[in-house]
Amino acid sequence: MKPQECCVLIPSLSPDERLPAYVKELLAADFGLILVVDDGSGAKYRKIFDEIAGWDRCRVLHHEVNKGKGAALRTGFSYLKKHTRLKGIITADSDGQHTVPDTLKLAAELGNGEKEELLLGSRDFSKNNPNVPPKSRFGNRLTSGVFRVLYGQWLPDTQTGLRAFPRSLTDFMLSVSGDRFEYEMNMLIQASNRRIPMRAVTIETIYHEENKGTHFHPIRDSWRIYKLLLGNFFRYSAASVISFLVDYLILSLMMFWVFKDEPDITLLGIPFSFKALVATPIARLCSAPVNFLLNKNYVFQSANSRGAVGRYIILAICSLVITTFVFGFLDHYVHTNFLHLLLKIVIDVAMYVINYRIQKAWVFPAEKLKGEIKK
Question: Three-class SS string for 39-79?
Answer without folding.
Answer: ECCCHHHHHHHHHHHCCCCEEEEEECCCCCHHHHHHHHHHH
